[in-house]
C-alpha cells in the first residue's frame, strides 16, 4: 500500500498525516525558525540555508525572510531568483521558479488543493497540482498563484492579481481573476 506522502507527491488524493509527512513538516518548521530569525545574512549564507531544504537552488537565488512553506523539498529555484519579504509557498507538489524571476513581497504560490466533493473534504482528503513559473517573470506584491498554474517566460503578474489559469509567455495579467492587458512582442 502506498504511503500518504507517495500519494501527495503524485498529485493524488491523500490525507496530510502519517509519520513521513509529520517528519517533513517538522523539518521545514525547524528550518523556517532558523531562516526567519535573521534578515542580516550574506548571499552565501542565504544560499547555503536554502540548499539545506529546497530540491534545487540556482546560483544567486535569494529569499528575504520571513518566508513560509509546507515542506521546502518540492521547491526548485533557478539562478538569480529573488523572493521579497513575506512570501508563502505551499509546496505539497513541485513548485519550479525559473532563472531570473523576481517575486514581490507577500506573494502566495499555492499547490495545495481540495476536492470539490464535500464528502471527500469531510474525510480530510486533499491533493496538489504543480505550479511552474518560467524564466524572467516578474510577480508583483500580494499576487496569488493558484494550484496548477503555469506562467510563461517573460510574463508580468500585476500586484494583487489572483492567477487562476495559465499565463502565456510575454503576457501581462492583472486583477481578480487575472486577465491579460498587454502582450510584448
Descriptive account of the structure:
This protein is 21% helix and 29% strand. The model has no long low-confidence stretch (mean pLDDT 94). The chain has four helices and 20 strands. β19 and β20 form a beta hairpin. It is α/β, with parallel strands linked by helices. The chain has a seven-stranded mixed sheet. It has one domain: 3 Solenoid (UDP N-Acetylglucosamine Acyltransferase, domain 1), CATH 2.160.10.10.
Q: What are the defining features of this structure?
A:
185 residues; alpha/beta; UDP N-Acetylglucosamine Acyltransferase, domain 1; 7-stranded mixed β-sheet; 5-stranded parallel β-sheet; Hexapeptide_acetyltransf; acyltransferase; Hexapep_transf_CS; acetyltransferase activity; repeat
Write the layout of secondary structure elements.
Elements: H1 4-9, E1 14-15, H2 19-35, H3 43-53, E2 56-57, E3 62-63, E4 67-69, E5 75-77, E6 82-83, E7 87-90, E8 95-97, E9 102-103, E10 108-110, E11 112-113, H4 118-122, E12 125-128, E13 131-133, E14 138-139, E15 144-145, E16 150-151, E17 156-157, E18 162-163, E19 171-174, E20 179-183
Parallel strand pairs: 2-5, 3-6, 4-7, 5-8, 6-9, 7-10, 8-13, 9-14, 10-15, 13-16, 14-17, 15-18, 17-19
Antiparallel strand pairs: 1-12, 11-12, 19-20
Amino acid at each position: 500500500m502506498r504511503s500518504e506522502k507517495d500519494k501527495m507527491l503524485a498529485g493524488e488524493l491523500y490525507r496530510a498525516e502519517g509519520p513521513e509527512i509529520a517528519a517533513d513538516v517538522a523539518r521545514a518548521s525547524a528550518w523556517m525558525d532558523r531562516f526567519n530569525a535573521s534578515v542580516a545574512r550574506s548571499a552565501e549564507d542565504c544560499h547555503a540555508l536554502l540548499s539545506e531544504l529546497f530540491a534545487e537552488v540556482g546560483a544567486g537565488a535569494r529569499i528575504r525572510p520571513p518566508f513560509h512553506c509546507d515542506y521546502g523539498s518540492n521547491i526548485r529555484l533557478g539562478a538569480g531568483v529573488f523572493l521579497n519579504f513575506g512570501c508563502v509557498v505551499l509546496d505539497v507538489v513541485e513548485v519550479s521558479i525559473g532563472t531570473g524571476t523576481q517575486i514581490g513581497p507577500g506573494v502566495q504560490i499555492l499547490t495545495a488543493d481540495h476536492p470539490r466533493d464535500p464528502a471527500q473534504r469531510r474525510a480530510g482528503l486533499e491533493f496538489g497540482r504543480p505550479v511552474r513559473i518560467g524564466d524572467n517573470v516578474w510577480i508583483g506584491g500580494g499576487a496569488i498563484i493558484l494550484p496548477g498554474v503555469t506562467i510563461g517566460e517573460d510574463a508580468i503578474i500585476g500586484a494583487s492579481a489572483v492567477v487562476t489559469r495559465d499565463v502565456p509567455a510575454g503576457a501581462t495579467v492583472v486583477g481578480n481573476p487575472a486577465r491579460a492587458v498587454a502582450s510584448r512582442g
